[in-house]
Amino acid sequence: MPTSLKSTTRLHNGVEMPWFGLGVYKVKEGSEVIESVKAAIKNGYRSIDTAAIYENEEGVGQAIRESGVPREELFITSKVWNSDQGYESTLQAYETSLKKLGLEYLDLYLIHWPGKDKYKETWKALEKLYKEGRVRAIGVSNFHIHHLEELLKEAEIKPMVNQVEYHPHLQQKELLAFCQKEGIQLEAWSPLKQGQLLQDPTLTEIAEKYGKTTAQVILRWDLQTKVVTIPKSIKEQRIMENADIFDFELSQEDMEKIAGLNKDERVGPNPDEFMVGFEE
Q: Is 169 annotated as a binding residue?
């Protein structure tokens, strides 16, 4: 099991990815994102997850430069947005993201949403970037099993990561099993269901038992289900608290209680229906 913020999972190409990181979805460009990323890095985080559509890559890049931590010790993820999908446009989008971040390379680059059919072309662009050594790992986000199966038919390189909405109310067990079988690391976005799970009676009861917060129990559950997790916060206190999950382990019994909370309930859109930003 991961023992610290520096603990990593080995992706199928041998790249080490931290089990735990900071997400910056809806964190405002400028001082808000700069301060939250700096606070995370100062407190031992090494993985930062952004995306073109978050419009805060510049701030993330500035925070990285000001953090004083060598670039090669960090793991930086960004994503190609829907309107940039396609071969040439993805290559261009990658350059734009790199430029905004002020980086020479990314550790992980993801296709943000599958959309209808462009993702195969987009994937070819990611494969090119990967082969050229411009990005250390490539993957997808919000892909259902059927999207992955379609992609795998034509992909030369298998995705290393699939980042999806994942929390106790949306446990995606078939998807997790499929990804594990294929050697694709599952990663959770919105692990706390945007805060909606923090009052759940089962989770609060488990938290009391361990002397932990409900958020810590949920994030620990992610790790024990072998899912990478990237909770978002802009408060340093909460950033530190979220990461304080390496000194306890949930019992089998408590893992089963949490497994019983699944409702297949999303807080974000269903990837089969989400077409925002794709040219119709």
A: no
